[in-house]
Design goal:
The complex is a heterodimer of chains A (111) and B (112). With 111 residues, chain A is mostly beta strands. Chain A has no helices and eleven strands. Chain A is globular and about 40 Å long. With 112 residues, chain B is mainly beta. Classes of the chains: A mainly beta (111), B mainly beta (112).
Chain lengths: 111, 112
C-alpha cells in the first residue's frame, strides 16, 4: 500500500517564475491538505481539497492556488515566486478522521 | 500568535532513559492532539494522538498525556532509543476536519 507521494523531490526556480507541485494521496484517502514548512518552523497550513473543491484555506496569498483531480491527486501552484517562498512543501492526506499522513515533501529553492 | 507552543527547541537524553516532550496550546476549541516525528529529508510521520475526552493514550513505548485545564500535553518515550533521535512536532485540530496547527518542534537527541 503506497503512502503519500510527492513530486518532484527538489526544485530550483528564480524569482517571478511559476511552479507546480504534485501529490498522490494514500490509498483510500479523499482529502488532501498542503502545508509550507520554513526552516526552523512547524508546517503552516495552505489549503485543503475535498471532492475537487478547496474546502479551507490558510493565511496565504492568491499566488498560491491548487487543484484536486477526480482520482483525489492534487497540485499546488505558486505564481510570481518570491525568495520567501523557499521552503519544504508538504502534502498530507486523510480519509475522514483527524489524522493526516504526510508525503516526503518537495524542497523548493527560489533564487 | 502561536496557538501551539513547544518551548524547548532541543532535548538530549541518554539511551534507556525517559524522554519527555512538552506542548502547550491556547485555543480552547482544540479537541484532538497529535504528535509527529520528522527525520531530515522526510515528511512528518504520525506517531500517536489523543482526543480531548481522554487524558492518556499509550502505544508501546510512547504515551501522550493531556491536561485540559492547563492546556498542556506531553509525550513520554520509555525507554529512549538512538533511533528516536528526530524532530518531534505537536499538532492540534478543532472539530470538523479543520487543518492541523503545529508547534515549532523539539529536536530530540538520544545519546548511546
Amino acid at each position: 500500500d503506497a503512502g503519500v507521494t510527492q513530486s518532484p523531490t527538489h526544485l530550483i526556480k528564480t524569482r517571478g517564475q511559476q511552479v507546480t507541485l504534485r501529490c498522490s494521496p494514500k490509498s483510500g484517502h479523499d482529502t488532501v491538505s498542503w502545508y509550507q514548512q520554513a526552516l526552523g518552523q512547524g508546517p503552516q497550513f495552505i489549503f485543503q481539497y475535498y471532492e475537487e473543491e478547496e474546502r479551507q484555506r490558510g493565511n496565504f496569498p492568491d499566488r498560491f492556488s491548487g487543484h484536486q483531480f477526480p482520482n483525489y491527486s492534487s497540485e499546488l501552484n505558486v505564481n510570481a515566486l518570491l525568495l520567501g517562498d523557499s521552503a519544504l512543501y508538504l502534502c498530507a492526506s486523510s480519509g475522514g478522521g483527524p489524522e493526516q499522513f504526510f508525503g516526503p515533501g518537495t524542497r523548493l529553492t527560489v533564487l | 500568535d502561536q496557538q501551539v507552543k513547544q518551548n524547548s527547541p532541543s532535548l538530549s537524553v541518554q539511551e534507556g532513559r525517559i524522554s519527555i516532550l512538552n506542548c502547550d496550546y491556547t485555543n480552547s476549541m482544540f479537541d484532538y492532539f497529535l504528535w509527529y516525528k520528522k527525520y531530515p529529508a522526510e515528511g512528518p510521520t504520525f506517531l500517536i494522538s489523543i482526543s480531548s475526552i481522554k487524558d492518556k493514550n499509550e502505544d508501546g513505548r510512547f504515551t501522550v498525556f493531556l491536561n485540559k485545564s492547563a492546556k498542556h500535553l506531553s509525550l513520554h518515550i520509555v525507554p529512549s532509543q538512538p533511533g528516536d533521535s528526530a524532530v518531534y512536532f505537536c499538532a492540534a485540530s478543532s472539530p470538523g476536519n479543520t487543518p492541523l496547527v503545529f508547534g515549532k518542534g523539539t529536536r530530540l537527541s538520544v545519546i548511546a
